């Protein structure tokens, strides 16, 4: 069977001297396919066999792994290869998508569009890279069923918007807890983490946001640090994805950049 699909390359594994095995994210899910000659710099499929390349792929599907017959690449996404920080984020996000999105045809309906939007956002620089990554991680948590209602205490269900007091993150329950639960439950108080007061709203808005429409996201350094720590833990402990790749990203970004600024604290979506 020959079929045609829009796709983004989320993993490339060299196969021998000439070929490459591609993991493609399509609108209906993940598919793997052999790109013959894809590993040769001047090969016909070389531009179709680069991480983050996006375009129309014509695939032959026999028994076993598919074959890329033809590809018309619409976006090479060179900016994501040339800038070392962007390249690190792109590599992490591709790895996360390749592990978190199910095989075709079981992808969540928004997965392809939101992943394309996160790569577009990295290229465009309108929104800080870490905030884009957090927005995508929040969607992954929801798709994998490990995203709680971030507006409610995971222990008692109380609305966190109404209490006005700072919630805490409970790493064992995998969600935010209200100040009352934190004060009543000794074990929760001891193990939970302090987080900025507005984090419940920020997590909820970023989870629901269409990444393509995110703009003017201005969050404090403390907020960005808390989001980063919570989502790394949430994905690693409850979904079993992202742990090592996220650590590699964090170490690389820390060695290349200054910490985010302390000003601001606004989220417009
Ligand atoms: Zn509570």
Give short descriptive properties of this protein.
single chain; 269 residues; alpha+beta; OB fold (Dihydrolipoamide Acetyltransferase, E2P); de novo design (two linked rop proteins); three-stranded antiparallel sheet; 10 helices; elongated; binds zinc ion; ARFGAP/RecO; DNA recombination; DNA repair protein RecO
Task: Give an account of the 3D structure.
The chain has ten helices and ten strands. It is elongated and about 65 Å long. The protein is 41% helix and 22% strand. It has two domains: 76 residues, OB fold (Dihydrolipoamide Acetyltransferase, E2P); 192 residues, de novo design (two linked rop proteins) (Up-down Bundle). The mean pLDDT is 92. The strands form three sheets. A five-stranded mixed barrel has the order 1-2-3-5-4. A three-stranded antiparallel beta sheet has the order 7-6-8. Strand 6 and strand 7 form a beta hairpin. It is α+β, with helices and mostly antiparallel strands. Zinc ion (ZN) binds next to helix 6.
* CATH fold assignment of the largest domain: de novo design (two linked rop proteins)
* CATH class annotation of the largest domain: Mainly Alpha
Bound compounds, each kind once, are: zinc ion
So what's the overall shape? elongated
Strand fraction: 15-25%
Distance between the termini: 43 Å
Radius of gyration: 20 Å
Number of domains: 2
Q: Fraction of residues in helices?
A: 40-55%
Weakly predicted, low-confidence segments: none
Task: Provide a quick synopsis of the model.
The protein has 269 residues and is of the alpha+beta class.
């Amino acid at each position: 069977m020959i079929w045609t699909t829009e796709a983004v390359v989320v993993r490339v594994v060299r196969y021998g001297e000439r070929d490459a095995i591609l993991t493609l994210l399509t609108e209906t899910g993940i598919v793997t396919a052999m790109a013959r000659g894809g590993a040769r710099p001047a090969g016909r499929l070389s531009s179709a066999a680069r991480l983050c390349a996006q375009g129309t792929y014509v695939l032959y599907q026999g028994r076993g792994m598919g074959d890329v017959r033809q590809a018309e690449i619409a976006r090479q996404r060179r900016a994501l290869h040339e800038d070392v920080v962007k390249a690190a984020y792109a590599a992490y996000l591709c790895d996360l998508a390749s592990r978190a999105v199910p095989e075709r045809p079981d992808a969540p309906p928004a997965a392809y569009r939101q992943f394309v939007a996160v790569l577009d956002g990295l290229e465009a620089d309108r929104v800080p890279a870490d905030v884009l990554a957090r927005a995508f991680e929040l969607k992954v948590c929801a798709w994998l069923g490990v995203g709680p209602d971030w507006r409610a205490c995971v222990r008692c269900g109380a609305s966190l918007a109404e209490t006005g007091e700072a919630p805490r993150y409970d790493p064992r329950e995998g969600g935010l807890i209200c100040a009352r639960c934190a004060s009543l439950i000794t074990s929760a108080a001891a193990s939970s983490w302090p987080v900025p007061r507005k984090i419940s709203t920020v997590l909820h808005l970023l989870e629901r946001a269409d990444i393509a429409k995110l703009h003017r996201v201005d969050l404090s350094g403390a907020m960005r640090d808390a989001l980063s720590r919570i989502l790394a833990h949430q994905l690693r402990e409850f979904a079993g994805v992202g742990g090592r790749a996220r650590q590699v990203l964090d170490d690389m970004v820390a060695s290349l950049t200054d910490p985010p600024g302390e000003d601001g604290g606004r989220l417009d979506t």
